[in-house]
Amino acid sequence: EKNGFDSFMLKEIHDQPRAYEDTMRGRIEARSTIVLPGIELSEVQIRGLKQIHMVACGTAYHAALVGKTVIERLTRIPVEVDLASEYRYRMPVIRKNTLVIAVSQSGETADTLAAMREAKQWGARVMAITNVIGSSVAREADDCLFTLAGPEIAVASTKAYSSQLIAFYLLGIFMAQSLETLDQATQIELITMLERLPAQVEDMLKGNMEAVRQIAEQIAGHNHLFFIGRGLDYSLAMEASLKLKEISYLHSEAYAAGELKHGSLALVEDGTPVIALATQELLLEKTVSNIKEVKARGAYVIAFALEGNTELEKTADQVIYVPRTFSLFTPALAVVPLQLLAYYTASIRGNDVDKPRNLAKSVTVE
Ligand code: F6R
Questions:
Q1: Which of 59, 105, 207, 343 lies 20 to 30 Å (CA to CA) from residue 81?
Q2: Could you tell which of 7, 12, 55, 59 is best to mutate to test the pocket of ligand 1, judged by most ligand atoms within 8 Å of the CB?
Q3: Tell me, what is one Gene Ontology molecular-function annotation carried by this entry (predicted)?
Q4: Is the C-beta atom of 147 inside 6 A of ligand 1?
Q5: pLDDT digits (tens, 9 = 90+) for 302-320
Q6: Could you tell me if 88 and 115 are in contact, meaning their C-beta atoms sit under 8 angstroms apart?
Q7: C-alpha angle with apex 256: 253 to 259, nearest 5 degrees?
Q8: Helix residue spans in the chain (DSSP H)
């Protein structure tokens, strides 16, 4: 059942091209329009939305952080993202015309369910982005957008996270259709690039993953490292850091690249690995100056950059390249080598990658 892979995690990482295709299937019409039958929110209701709240835990929360940027960029509706365990107790301001989106692979996470119930009580409309049809989250939501990643066995989420990103891309374009925030040509261009993602992931998996394994060899002996990034790279850094922590048991921290010098830079010393995500072209120059900052303190920098941005080789010690796509879609590609980095690091350290200590796949208690 592991299809020849040594673990479910590795199998699930390789299952992502299929998961992306299934999540898009039947939802793109004539290569130009998004249709989402599970969403009953009308065009008028979408136009009336004043704000969106997203609630989730762990990896799903990190997907929601990407989702916030995607939805805000494509629709200009303000989005707030909360950890479900915080949202349920913080008396969130839910006004009329608030949409709450609960993101959950299992659809059974106790805090996420409680957060959505809280939101409903205050009159919000609730949408679920979940991987399990018939789950509690799906049953209690007004609208459902299913990720079709298939069953995820490994405790560390990989294909469910990346399929949640695909769901947000579909939702963003879908809402933009009602709001008329995208011109037709741009919309077609985005959909074309979206449809190209599965093949791009496939190519990455066939490509330079040996380079990622070598980086894992280098970091496996350290006790502490940083991930840094700006914008979507910061959201992705949080996910990459969680993935590495949960299965390798290395301590790592994700930092907004511009925030490091406000305190944590003090932890960077000779040889400290810093993994710099630099896939957002508009922020590239800023991230490069942050890379120089940590280099000056002796950090060993591994950069993740877009193909063609070879100038990073002058600043970073090593560079892993990610294929080009529309900037909002980059996390759906860049996440793949980061998942593999966690996987290889954990394997090198002799850990059970599918069943990390202290963790359960589904957290149905508070
Ligand atoms: C980490 C991981 C967890 C889950 C979290 C929420 O790899 O899998 O952080 O993302 O427990 O679970 P769901 O998405 O089922 O609500």
A1: 343
A2: 59
A3: carbohydrate derivative binding
A4: no
A5: 999 999 999 999 999 999 9
A6: yes
A7: 100
A8: 8-14, 16-24, 43-48, 58-75, 84-87, 110-121, 136-140, 159-179, 184-206, 209-219, 232-248, 284-296, 330-348
Ligand 1 neighbour 241 (Cβ under 6 A): no
Q: What tokens appear for 28 in the block?
A: 């793109």
Please provide the size of the chain in residues.
366
Q: Does 361 participate in catalysis according to the annotation?
A: yes
Span from the CA of 103 to the centroid of ligand 1 (angstroms)? 10
The helix (H) or strand (E) run that includes residue 305 is: strand 300-306
Q: Which helix (H) or strand (E) holds 2?
A: none
Q: Which atom of ligand 1 is nearest to the CA of 56?
A: 16
Identify the DSSP state of 230. S
Q: What is the ipTM of this complex?
A: 0.99
Between CA 235 and CA 254 the distance in angstroms is 9
Is the CB of residue 130 below 6 angstroms from any atom belonging to ligand 1?
Answer: no
Q: For residue 8, what are its two tokens? A: 């479910």
Does this model's pTM top 0.90? My answer is yes
Q: Distance between CA atoms of 260 and 256, rounded to whole angstroms? A: 7
User: Residue 96: which pLDDT band, with cuts at 50, 70 and 90?
Assistant: confident
Chain segment 220-234, per-residue pLDDT in tens: 999 999 999 999 999
CA atoms within 13 A on the CB side of 108: 11
109 lines ligand 1 (CB under 6 A): yes
- Residue 177 in contact with residue 75, Cβ under 8 Å? no
User: Which of the listed residues 66, 133, 147, 157 should we mutate to test ligand 1's pocket, taking the one with most ligand atoms within 8 A of CB?
Assistant: 157
User: If you measure from the C-alpha of residue 72 to the centroid of ligand 1, how many angstroms do you get, rounded to a whole number?
Assistant: 24
DSSP conformation class of 156: S
- Dump pLDDT digits (tens) for 282-304: 999 999 999 999 999 999 999 99
CA of 61 to the centre of ligand 1 (A): 8
Helix (H) or strand (E) segment spanning residue 155: none
